[in-house]
């Protein structure tokens, strides 16, 4: 055998050996890839309207207001192999990120899924509130128990989902009212909580204990403000988590509640969290979401301001980036796109 042939043979064996090792060697990274994109003005995978409004007049819409998602491979219990990670690093559509970016070390995959589900639920409520605020429709809030801390006085008495209606006889409609009242209580005081569970009014007397700092009186419940809407808004998107569809939900709700199609038939996609006041926040996976949007046919992508730098660097051909700071500003930008008049904020 010639030296050249021997060298090629040895190299082939080495490559094969590395391939075998790479296919078995699991690495603590996650591959992020473009996920499904859905039209908030359309139907879900069951053929039902993705957003359904009852009890309020709605108007015909057209075009697309697509929310975008990211899928992933890897994670605890199902780590990707070294070759998959290497291919991902070479693939422009895929991002390889450290495992703890998606799965914090102190949380299980189940806990992460639960947090993503809750984040999606919160984003839907925020989107509904933002749209109604934009339209000037009055809203009221209620105080709901999000969690009960084990071993604390409320453990075994209150449950997640209970609505707190009064504290020591004084009605409460916001978390700030509850925390303000509790700030006046001393450690060891007994407080009376009126709450609603499954439509039934109940009372509970709970003795306060010290918080971890030893300075504040607490009963061991985590509360959140939830809105009472004057009519029913139902968002059905299936098994998708996270808060990043908030902006697109709020735009779709606004569109359905106002005369004339907001998009004028355009294919608009986007992403961004939303607050009840209509402020748009940044998200993760902007590159993969833009790729998914463009492949689906979008020509305009609504981009949170804080994601603009990364978005500009990875923008697919044929996709116009419109900066989204607030719900009101985004609606004005879409109207300007339709008419050709007015300011259209761009990512730079």
UniProtKB/TrEMBL annotation:
Please give the Pfam families that the UniProt record associates with this protein.
Lon_C, PDZ_2
Active site, per annotation: 244, 289
Please give the catalytic activity noted in the UniProt record.
Answer: Hydrolysis of proteins in presence of ATP
- Is Protease a UniProt keyword of this protein? yes
Q: Which domain of life is it from?
A: Bacteria
Q: What class of enzyme is it?
A: hydrolase
The Gene Ontology biological process annotation of the record reads: protein catabolic process; proteolysis
Looking at the record, the residues that make up the Lon proteolytic domain are 239-337
Which SUPFAM superfamilies does the UniProt entry name for this protein? PDZ domain-like, Ribosomal protein S5 domain 2-like
What residue stretches are annotated with the PDZ domain? 117-199
A single GO molecular-function term is: ATP-dependent peptidase activity
Keywords in alphabetical order, please: Hydrolase, Protease, Serine protease
Into which family does the record put it?
A: Belongs to the peptidase S16 family.
Q: Know the name of this protein?
A: endopeptidase La
């Amino acid at each position: 055998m010639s030296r050249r042939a021997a060298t090629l043979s040895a190299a082939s064996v080495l490559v094969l050996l590395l391939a075998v090792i790479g296919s078995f060697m699991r690495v603590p990274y996650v591959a992020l890839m473009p996920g499904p994109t859905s039209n908030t003005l359309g139907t879900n995978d069951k053929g039902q309207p993705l957003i359904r409004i009852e009890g309020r007049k709605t108007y015909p819409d057209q075009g697309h207001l697509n929310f975008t998602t990211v899928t992933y491979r890897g994670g605890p219990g199902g780590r990707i192999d070294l070759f998959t990670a290497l291919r991902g690093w070479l693939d422009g559509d895929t991002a390889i990120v450290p495992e703890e970016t998606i799965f914090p070390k102190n949380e299980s995959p189940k806990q992460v899924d639960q947090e993503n589900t809750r984040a999606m639920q919160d984003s839907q409520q925020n989107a509904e509130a933002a749209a109604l605020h934009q339209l000037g429709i009055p809203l009221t809030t209620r105080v709901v128990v999000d969690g009960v801390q084990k071993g604390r006085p409320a453990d075994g008495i209150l449950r997640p989902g209970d609505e707190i209606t009064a504290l020591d006889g004084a009605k409460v409609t916001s978390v700030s009212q509850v925390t303000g009242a509790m700030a006046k209580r001393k450690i060891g005081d007994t407080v009376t909580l009126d709450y609603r569970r499954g439509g039934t009014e109940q009372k509970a007397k709970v003795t306060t204990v010290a918080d971890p700092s030893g300075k504040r009186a607490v009963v061991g419940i985590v509360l959140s403000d939830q809105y009472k809407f004057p009519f029913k808004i139902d968002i059905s998107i299936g098994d998708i988590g996270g808060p990043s569809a908030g902006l697109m939900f709020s735009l779709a709700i606004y569109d359905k509640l106002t005369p004339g199609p907001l998009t004028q038939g355009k294919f608009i996609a986007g992403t961004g969290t939303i607050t009840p006041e209509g402020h748009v926040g940044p998200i993760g996976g902007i590159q993969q979401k833009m790729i998914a949007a463009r492949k689906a046919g979008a020509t305009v992508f609504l981009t949170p301001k804080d994601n603009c730098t990364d978005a500009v660097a990875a923008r697919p051909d044929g996709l116009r980036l419109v900066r989204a700071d607030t719900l009101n500003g985004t609606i004005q930008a879409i109207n300007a796109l339709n008419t050709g008049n007015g300011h259209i904020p761009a990512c730079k």
